[in-house]
Amino acid sequence: MTNADAGELFLIATPIGNLGDITMRALETLRKVDLVAAEDTRTAKKLFSRYQITTSLISLHDHSSLKRLDEIIGKLQRGATIGVISEAGTPGISDPGFRLIQMAAAAAIRITPLPGACAAISAICASALPLDSFYFAGFLPVRSGPRQRKLESLKEIEATLIFYESPRRLNATLEIMEQVFGDRLACVARELTKIYEEFLRFPLSYLRSLGREEGWRGEITLLVTGYDRESHSRDPQTLLEAEAELRACLADPDFAKGRSNRDLVESLMEQFPLLKRRRIYEIVLSDNL
Fold first, then answer.
1. Domain CATH for 25
2. Is 2 within the bounds of a domain?
3. pLDDT tens across the length of the chain (289 residues)
4. In a domain, 149, yes or no
5. Of 117, 138, 169, which one is at a domain's C-terminal end?
6. Where among 227, 248, 275 does a domain terminate?
7. Do 250 and 212 share a domain, yes or no?
8. Which one in 111, 126, 174, 181 has a CA-CA gap of 20 to 30 Å to 147?
9. 245 and 264 share one domain
10. Is 159 in contact with 227 (CB distance < 8 Å)?
11. Are residues 47 and 92 in the same domain?
């Protein structure tokens, strides 16, 4: 339930490049709210100037204090209407608006989203990678160790993976991705909706070679095909590794103790889904001879 006496928080999507990519509803709302909280007031002023918007601005960025957040919540609780805008795109997605949204929800303040531009959605639509399911991973950790661990955790997700990345770190990220994921098909979408918009659809290894030769510039959205479980399961090396792990389980006296061959097969089928039941049964019989 919402607080009937409180105001309303509007999450307003703004252009990710081309200033023409804004909805009529967004412009109307930006003009009528009491205040707009912007991730970057300089960018907001350019948009406001283009569309003759005179609403007061307040900054809301990564380094905004709890005092600033409390100040905005206080205004909402007293009945103010406030819009939130990112530097570009949809508020709350990899930007500081998320903290305010959480606080507003906890305070039972009405939250109204205004749909519009989003780099992740724009990029995947034109990437030519599978669209039936996708996983938005946002920005990866800056340091190489945590970045690799994060990618390891995403390795077996079967949906198309979407990342935001800095052009300065993109080559390093592509290199680690190739090590972790293998040479999957990927797409670098850069400068979306801008003059130099570009979609580069190649395997990770080739994208990395392009980056070494020319470097990267502009805003980057990186998309990578998901884990292909079916192809992976047919890989002979993968099957051999799975069989070796299965034999190691059977060699553990505590694992097999008190279990019939049937019980062992049922348990191992859950543990090793890549292997067929018949093959598991053959290994169980041979190891128990």
1. 3.40.1010.10
2. no
3. 778 789 999 999 999 999 999 999 999 999 999 999 999 999 999 999 999 999 999 999 888 888 999 999 999 999 999 999 999 999 988 777 889 999 999 999 999 999 999 999 999 999 999 989 999 999 999 999 999 999 999 999 999 999 999 999 999 999 999 999 999 999 999 999 999 999 999 999 999 999 888 889 999 999 999 988 766 556 677 778 888 888 888 888 888 777 888 888 888 888 887 777 878 887 887 765 4
4. yes
5. 117
6. 227
7. no
8. 126
9. yes
10. no
11. yes
Domain extent at residue 74: 8-117
Whether residue 238 is contained in a domain is answered as yes
Amino acid at the residue 27: L
pTM over 0.85: no
